[in-house]
Amino acid sequence: MAETGPRIGFMFPGQSSEYAGMGVGLHREHPVFRAAIDRRADAFRRLTGVGPLEVFADTAAQTRAELLQPAVFLLQVALAELWASYGVTPAAVIGHSLGEYAAACVAGVFDAEEGLELVSARGRSFAAVPGAGRMVVVSCPDLAELERLVAAQEDAAVAAYNAPQRVTVSGTDAAMRALEGAFEQRGWLTIPLATTHAFHSALVAPAVPALVAAAGRVAHRPPAVPLALNLTGAWATGGDLGAEYWGRQLTSPVRFLPGLRRLLDGGCTVFLEVGPGRTLTAAGRAQAGGDEVWLPGLSARNPDPVTVLEHLDRLERAGVRIDRAGGSAPPTVSEASAPAADPFSPEEAERLLASFHALTQDQIEALLPWLAVHDAAGSTERTIS
Questions:
Q1: Hey, is 58 helix, strand or coil?
Q2: In this structure, are residues 102 and 114 in contact, taking their beta carbons and an 8 Å threshold?
Q3: Closest CA to 380 of 366, 362, 372, 368
């Protein structure tokens, strides 16, 4: 069928934007989303020992990689099916780290059940590796200088290129202290991230063998939807994805910046963050021309059914043809009908940024809408793993 309307890019975030209650309201109120979760619930329980809704709802469960990672994958795949039920399908996809598994699934590289097996193995491989090191986001006007400083530290690595002048660095505590001092001398804002591991560095290499072994049991197919890769920032070809790819992806930097540029240059003008959070939306806006439509993911500040309704309305205004009947039934808004107000005034946001070393994950997430408008410092990316 010929394409009509704008080209849509799906962006799948990684770990760290999750929150207690994500997807629970949608499961209760939307039959397509509920069916997508329920028909994989037995497999999820077999792989993890708990049901998916238990992880969606529980902050403590979300601290365990072996539970959280498959839960995020399943949530994202179910959301993609929900959007598809309304006729909202991607012209191209990109994921960020863990989110690349859902992007590959939606692109047809493997099916949801195979992906759930693979991501569960990824979560278990992380759970078996003791947490070590830490990560910081850097607002950096001189990328070459940052790369030089990081290369000079034996136990550090660039973990992600997220947006212009927005980079995440990963390494041991000692290496990060040294780098933070060097960044501070140059006047670069840094924001520490509360993570369990120094993701996308050699410190997580012990998790690679088990992941590669699990990926080797999954038949990888060429993507049927254009997929921009984390490793290269280029479009995936038939032979790019396989067991070894996922092993290298685990310890290599995420090249989200050039990957998203592929979608922009490919004509995508509407971008939908498929998952929790708005990190990729903020990163995308930082490199876009200004005429694109950016729709963030689910948020603890807005009931999930309300977010879906708002996005459907915005998609229609952008020229996307919405199949309301195909969605079976629109989500209701029994939880609440109005979005929560921004939790920070501009003055409070400025104060928090000035004391960035004390920011909690919740504060970082809550600051993102303010930053998207004011572009202050511009770098609170949390989507890491």
A1: coil
A2: no
A3: 368
Q: Residue 362, Cβ neighbours under 10 Å: how many?
A: 12
Neighbours of 6 (CB within 10 A): 17
Distance of CA 253 to the CA centre of its chain: 14
Distances, alpha carbon 42 to alpha carbons 22, 51, 121, 214, 384, in Å: 20, 8, 16, 20, 28
pLDDT tens for 222-266 read 999 999 999 999 999 988 999 999 999 999 999 999 999 999 999
Structure-token pair, residue 256: 């989200």
The closest alpha carbon to 371, from 198, 232, 181, 163, belongs to 163
Residue among 1, 8, 2 nearest 320 (CA)? 8
Residue 380's pLDDT is what?
39
Spatial separation of the C-alpha atoms in residues 276 and 300, rounded to whole Å: 9
CB 13 within 8 A of CB 50: no
Q: Amino acid identity of 60?
A: A
Are the C-beta atoms of 166 and 379 separated by less than 8 Å? yes
Residue type, 158: V
**Torsion angles phi and psi, residue 157, rounded to 5:** -155, 155
Cα–Cα nearest to 97, from 263, 297, 279, 282: 279
Phi, psi of 170 (to 5 degrees): -135, 145
Phi, then psi, of 48 in degrees rounded to 5: -120, -20
Can you give the pTM of this predicted structure?
0.87
* Lookup: tokens for 97: 């780290």
Query: Measuring CA to CA, which residue among 279, 280, 331 is closest to residue 85?
Result: 331
The closest alpha carbon to 107, from 68, 78, 83, 80, belongs to 80
Structural contact between residues 137 and 380, judged by C-beta atoms closer than 8 angstroms: yes
Question: In a 3-state reduction of DSSP, which class is residue 177?
Answer: helix
Identify whether the C-beta of residue 211 lies closer than 8 Å to the C-beta of residue 179.
no
Which token pair is 162?
Answer: 């997220």
Residues 6+ apart with CB under 8 A from 374: 346, 349
* b/e code 56-87 from CB counts within 10 Å (16+ = b): bbbeebbebbbbbbbbbbbbbbbbbbbbbbbb
**Residues listed for the chain:** 385
